[in-house]
């Protein structure tokens, strides 16, 4: 029998890259990694967590960010991580507007559940990390442990704490 995988689900804006005030990241020139994110992801890779990005991107539904642009941003993000020896296993995004009432937009756990099936995830031993209450709510609904990023605390500290908790 295949054993299940543990995962760290990461919100994107405000966790991996700097949030733009009142704007969407529309192309790669607007994407800025937060400090020590690459190191943090590398540590979590080494600790055998699947790294899965789950991000609301309503800018796509609004027509502000083109799907092709978003895919390009994600490809470059993964390429740059790879150069640092860090690896993202999957990226899920919700392109919908709030009004569309889809199942994937956080605080709903749709993206986590989809990834859970595709990666055979054991939610009990997995984490959702985000900078907003809706991230935390989505993680809890999926049955994950959760961690809300504060401005004073980077992903590296959180990654270390998660790994420490496993010991
Ligand atoms: Mg965020
Ligand atoms: Zn959606």
Brief overview:
The protein is α/β, with parallel strands linked by helices and 167 residues long. Helices cover 37% and strands 14% of the residues.
Which percent bin holds the helix content? 25-40%
Q: Please list the strands of the largest sheet in the order they lie side by side.
A: 3-2-1-4-5
How many domain units? 1
Fourth CATH level, the homologous superfamily: HAD superfamily/HAD-like
User: Could you state the order of secondary-structure elements as H and E?
Assistant: EHEHHEHEHEH
In the CATH scheme, what's the topology name?
Rossmann fold
* Cα-based radius of gyration, to the nearest Å: 15 Å
The percent range for strand residues is: 5-15%
Assembly state: single chain
Molecules bound to protein: magnesium ion, zinc ion
The chain-level mean pLDDT equals 96
Class derived from helix and strand content: alpha/beta
| C-alpha termini separation | 25 Å
Description:
- The protein has 167 residues and is of the alpha/beta class.
- The chain has a single domain (7-124, 133-166), classed as Rossmann fold (3-Layer(aba) Sandwich), CATH 3.40.50.1000.
- It is built from 6 helices and 5 strands; from the N terminus they run βαβααβαβαβα.
- The chain has helices spanning 37-46, 58-61, 67-83, 110-118, 133-142, 155-166, and strands at 7-10, 50-56, 90-94, 127-130, 145-148.
- A 5-stranded parallel beta sheet has the order 3-2-1-4-5.
- Helix 1 (37-46) runs parallel beside helix 6.
- The radius of gyration is 15 Å and the shape is globular.
- The structure holds magnesium ion and zinc ion.
- Residues 11, 13-15, 130-132 line the site of magnesium ion (MG).
